[in-house]
Amino acid sequence: MIKIKKEEIESHTISLLVDNEAGVLARVIGLFSGRGYNIESLAVAEVDQDHHKSRITIVTNGSPMTISQIKSQLERIVPVHSVKDLTTEGPSIEREMALIKVVCDGDNREEVIRLSEVYRAKIVDTTKNSFIFELTGANDKINSFIEMLHPLGLEDISRTGLAAISRGKKE
Amino acid sequence: MSELTGAEVILRALKDHSVDHIFGYPGGAVLPLYDELFKSNDAPKHILVRHEQGAAHAAEGYARSTGKPGVLLVTSGPGATNAVTGLTDAMMDSIPLVCISGQVPTHLIGTDAFQEADTVGITRACTKHNWLVKDPNDLAKVIHEAFHVATSGRPGPVVVDVPKDIQFADAKYYPPIEFKNENYKPQLKPDMRFIDEAIELMANSKKPVFYTGGGVINSGPEASHLLKELALLTGFPVTSTLMGLGAFPSEESNWLGMLGMHGTYEANLAMNECDLLINIGARFDDRVTGRLDAFSPNSKKIHVDIDPSSINKTVPIDVPILGDCAYALEGLLLKWKSKGHKVNLDSWYKKINDWRKKDSLSYKNSSDSIKPQFAVERLYELTKEKDTFITTEVGQHQMWAAQHYKFNKPNRWMTSGGLGTMGYGLPAAIGVQAAHPESLVIDIAGEASVLMNMQEMSTAVQHKLPIKIFIINNQYMGMVRQWQELLHGGRYSHSYTDSLPDFVKLAEAYGCLGVRTSSPDELDKKIEEMLNYDGPVIFDCVVDQDENCYPMIPSGAAHNEMLLSKDKDNKEVSDEGKVLI
Fold this sequence. Notes:
The complex is a heterodimer. Chain A contains 4 helices and 9 strands. Chain A has helices at residues 24-34, 64-75, 107-119, 139-149; strands at residues 10-19, 41-48, 53-62, 80-85, 92-103, 122-127, 130-137, 154-159, 163-166. The longest helix of chain A is centred in the middle third of the chain and has 13 residues, at 107-119. By secondary structure, chain B is an alpha/beta fold. The chains are: A alpha+beta, B alpha/beta. The interface between A and B is small, with 7 and 6 residues.
C-alpha cells in the first residue's frame, strides 16, 4: 500500500519590500491568482519615500511545500527586493487595525461602551444612535470583538489587513 | 437537475444556448470535450480551423453576420494564447464571443505543467469577464453566466477556462431557464427626461447630423429600422463610423458616407460645422474625431450608448442617453412624432451639397493598370444584386472597400475596426459562410494581411465553404507605405514584400481556384469567373502600386484640414501629429 503523506495547511505571514512603481501590486497579486495560491489578508503602503520602497504584507496559507514555492516565486519578481517569512524567521510582531460601526440605542449603548473598554477600543466618532470604534491588535482580538458586537447592532467593518515586522536587531 | 460529466454539461449548455457552430482546435486539455463531440449525435457543428486565431476571427464573423454569440473551443497554453488576438479584436469592436479553453488539471495549476498558461490572467485585459472553473458543480452556472455577459449590455468576448479533471468529473446540470443572473444587469431603457431634452435640441437645431456606429448594428435589426425611420422623418443627414456601415442605407439621399480619417469630405465637414451632433452607438474613436480640441467645436452633443464609461470619455456630452440604441431610437421617434416637429434644413443641405461637389472619393482611372478603387467599384457593381457579405483585412484595401462598396443592410460588413487586425478577413469570411452557406461571402483583402492567416484556406476547403478571397495586390503594406510617404520622407522601411507567393498556385495547392488579372479590361470577366465558381477562390487582383488612400485627415489634424489627394494642398504633418498612430 502506498502511504500518501497529507501535508498540513499552515498560515504564513510574508513581508515583501518592493519598488513603489506602477503595477507592482498587480504583479504580486497576479502571481497568487495565476498559480492558484490563497490570500487571507493583504496590506500595502509606501515605507521609504526617498527610495520609493513599499512594504507588502501578505497572509497566505498552504502546505509547507506550497509556502516555500510561493516565496521562491515572489523572489523571481524583478521589483521585489526582499521576501521574509515572518512566521518562520524568528519572532515578529503582528498588528491589524479595524474601524467598526455599531448602530444602537438604550441598553445596548451602555453594553457596547462597556465591551469597548474591555477590548481597549477607542471611540473615534459618535452620533445619537451610533459609534465608530478604532481597534488595533492581533487578528483574533479583533475577530473576537466583532463577534461580541454582532448581536448589539454591528453595522459595518473596515479592516486594514495585517501589518507585521520582525523583532530585534537586523541580522 | 441531472448528473453528467463536466464535458457533457458543457455540450448540453451549448445546445441549450442554441449554439449551432463551434470553431475550434483540439489538444490535450480539451480531449474529454472533443470525445463528447465525437459521441454526441446532436452536437453543434465543429469547424476545425488551422490556428486558434482563425477560430476566434471565424467566431467573430459568425457573430457579426448573425447577431448571435460566436463560440470557440481551444486547448490550454498555446491554444489559449493563440486566441488572444481574436479576443482582443472582439473586445475592441464589442463582438459577443464565448471562448471555452481547456486548462491543466486543477492539482497541476501553478506548477508550470505541460501546456499550462495563466489563461485567466492573460485574458483579463481582453475579455469582458473570464472564469476559471474549479468546481464541476459550478460549470452550468458559469456557462449560462458567460452567455449572458457576452451578449447583454455592450457585447464582448468572455473566456471560460475548464481544467481537464473538471471535464471528467461528475457535474450537476440545470438549464438556462433556471439561471438567475444576480451580478450583471446593464440598463437597457433610457431615462425619458434625457429623451425629452434631446428632442428639444433636435427641434431647435439648424445644422444637425446623426453620427452612428456599431452600437446600432449590435442592438439588432430593429435599431437599424428605427434609425432609418427617424432619419427620414427628421430629414437629418446621417454619417457612420466604419463599424456602423450598413445600419443606414447608403442609397438614401441624406446619407453622407463614412466619416473619420478616410471618410468623405461632406461627412467630416458636416461634423465640423454642425450645431447638433447626435451620436447613436458610436464611441468618439480617435480615427473619427481627429484632433480632439478642434472636434465639432460649435455643436451641442447628444450621445446614446449602452456603456456608461463611453459617455464623457474623451468628448464632453450635453445630453447623455444611457441605454440600448433601439429603445433610445424608439423613444426619440415617438416623441418627435407626438410633438409634430419640423425643421427647415434647406440652407444646411445647400452647404452639404457644395461639399459633395468636391467628389472626395474620386480618383484618376487608368486603362493600363487596375486602380484599387476601380477594382472595388467593379466588384460592387457585379455583386450588388446578390445576397452578399463582405469581410476585409486591414489597411488601404479596407478603406477602399469602406469607401467604394455600398451597404444598404446591417450585418453585411465585417471588418476589424478598433484593433486593426491584419489577418482578420479570411477566417471571418469562414465564420460568415458557415452561418450563411447559400450566400456570397467575399473577403476584400490585401496581399500582406491575407498571408497572416492564409492557412485557413485549408479550413474553407475541408468544410466546403466557398469563400472568395479578393486580394488587392500592390506588393506593399500599403497603409504603412502611405504613412512613410507622408511622415517619413518616402523612406519605405520594410513595407515592400519581396518573394510573395504565386497566389494562383497557392490556391491550387489548397485545392481552390486561383484567378489573376492585372488588366482593367479583363477585370469584369475575371470577377465573373470567381463568382461563378462553386468553391473557394483566391483572386489575385494586381493593382497600381503607387495609389494612396484619399481623402485623409492626417494624424493630429482637424476635420476641416482634410487632404483630398496626393497632388493638392499637402501640408507638413505637425510634430504632435507624427507621434499619433
